[in-house]
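#random but structural
TW: two for the price of one
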Amino acid sequence: MKKFFLFFLYNLLFVSSIQAQQEKEAIKQMSAHFEQWYNAKAYDSIYAHFSVDMKAALPFTATKDFLNGVHEQYGKIKTRTFYKYVNSSFASYKTNFEKQVLALNISIDAQSMINGFQITEFVNDLPAAPERNTTKLMFPAKGEWTVVWGGDTPAQNYHVESRAQKNAFDIVMKDASGKSFKTNGKTNEDFYAFGKELMAPCDATVVVVVDGIKDNIPGEFNPIYIPGNTVILKTVNGEYLFFAHFKYQSTQVKSGQQVVKGQVLGLCGNSGNSSEPHIHFHIQNTENMINATGIKCYFDSININGQWKKDYSPIQKDLIKQ
């Protein structure tokens, strides 16, 4: 069993935010019940307090198997202390299991039903993040692309509300009429961006690869695994380059692999919490997005609106041609 467990639901945005750091009474009660039920292996009680969407996403058999696995690897919960809120409504608890200290993160809906939980590594302090990248980066795709979300203001970039993704880009391909699809946009194959090669912006080490998330029907979302198929690269300067929403089973690299600048990572897709094929790219200061802080991305040399620019960070409506 892997050390990192992740089962959760979010709102239909691939963003997160830190909330007021005071434990609310409803989540305090639910987390205490969760601990009690987990220790007693009363998984049916935990499942009974799942929201409707959570039950659909994580059936009882899967819930039981998952929690049994946690028991086998880490044992019972001995103590649990509220730490902070992460990712919108998730209350994070420093949790002393019998065999290891981990973070237990729980989210509840307006009816106090569990709509998400995590058991993951516990990180005491967030490492400081540089304001921008120092590694020289190339734009990771060929052709003409339009930035639909990018920049420093909420009007330019809805990602600014997220600590990890505050400098993220969402980038699509459009034709002369401004459409991102050829005919009616009802299939992924109809979109210009779908299947385009995405490349390593620099020499780096692959640290995360997710490849098994199916592409969405355009206009629909997958709120269960928000980033979809994912590749994260680590640069020699400790920057983590985060690509999301790759096409299903299209990634061409493996975790631990060394890649060179321009090497194909995979194909542009529509997996995860994505409404159409596009590039989602951002830089963060740690591998785990739960604890990461975003780093502003500057490309070393990039053609913007017909002019080559050095050391430039694209903004909304920029036309990129590489």
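TW: number two ↓
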Amino acid sequence: MARSGNAKAIATLLYSGALAEAVAACEESLQRHPNDDEVLALHGQSLAQLRRRDEAMASIMKAIRLEPKRPEYTTLLGELYMNSGRYRDALIQYDRAIKSHPLYDPAWAGKASTYLRMSKPEKARKVIEQRVESDDITPSIAVLHARVLVKLDEADTAVEVLQPYLDDTSIPIENQRSVWFTLGSAHEKADRLPGAFEAYSNANGLIGKRWNRTMQAGMHDLTAEQCSRAELQGGARSGADGSRMVFIVGLPRCGSTLTEQILHSHEKAHGIGESELLPIIAARFHEHGEDGTPRPMSMKDLDGESLTAAAMEYLEKATLNAGDAARVIDKQLGNYLYLGFIEKAFPGARIIHCRRNPMDQCLSAWSRQFPPGTNAWADELESAGELYCMYEGLMDHWRNTLSAPMLELRYEDLVQDTETLSKRIIEFCDLEWDPACLKFWENKRTVLTMSSDQVRQPIYDTARNRHRAWGELLDPLAGALGGAVERYGS
């Protein structure tokens, strides 16, 4: 997509993960130029990543009305439909883009991805095979082709598909990373763990050092310092009713998607996914250091009027599509940093803390490609272990200071005794038992996380104790975790 200078600046914000800033820049530009189709499309993309799908759809549809022949916009609409569970509508949009531009790969990729979401890998294979009949195959199509093959237990063929792209430094970094991450999953599927380790290491090493240990440690320590028991239990509180909200927190790959799906399958519960709403609102209360870097908010400086206004804004937006659901679930895992704010702003809210064996959890994060600009700690095994210890320490602090009810769930227990744990989750949320919660994989709702394929099937526990097969390859992780594994227990 050829972009104007303004659109290019907004795209840079969007692709670096600065979503709120991208939305603000789009809206400022659209006030001056309301029919700028490129900015409208970027506005839609940014809103979609913030889970504000209705607004995103309105912007993208307007862009399509202005420029109906641009496949980029039709494909963006297809992605929105796919991510809303409207698979047939998504396929229609992708076919429209392909019909007008037969070599537009994002549309082919979207169509194949939709079939994967529908748990139809054979149909996804047919889509990819249609596209690969051409000699001009892009890395993105090759990666998707390989992922489909891995899904179909054809790991060796997947490796062959990826081979031509392994040393191609001319393609964008994120595409290079996708090639290496997919190669790692293919080798792992074939039980070639040294090859998988090398591929994942290459994938993570392509973007260099991003994680600032000192800054992260300071953020965690200062959060605990600013949120003492006295400050949390005393002082101002919001006048809003937070009893409808359930916040699922933890680190990525902890079983939170499974937990949310079990809850969302209840007729009186509604999941909103990994919403960015709370971090955006909470950021307004952050202090700033002399160098301008954000610092955790001070509980003692919060006033009841501001807390109430912030809570009401959040509740209005978070519950927009929740209907009459008695419980609304926000599974933005990073909200573990804001549990003090949640305590103050949402009286009556419940917290579910999802945990997992730290070796398995950190390995899983390290071997996954997160969106650009996110989870820099997962780039190295050592930094993953160090961040886990910081998170563990802060969660210990919350246990000793919060009065809000908190349920602790272990992934291993959930997959081994799903019925007992599911009933415990539902009881914790003060809901009557619903047998549908044990058939969460039949839920038609789309899951917008890396676990989306896993929650489309009954419970499996092949990911439990995944780390054991890797042996000494994971020594750097074990060293960084120190005694975290022993503290977690078997």
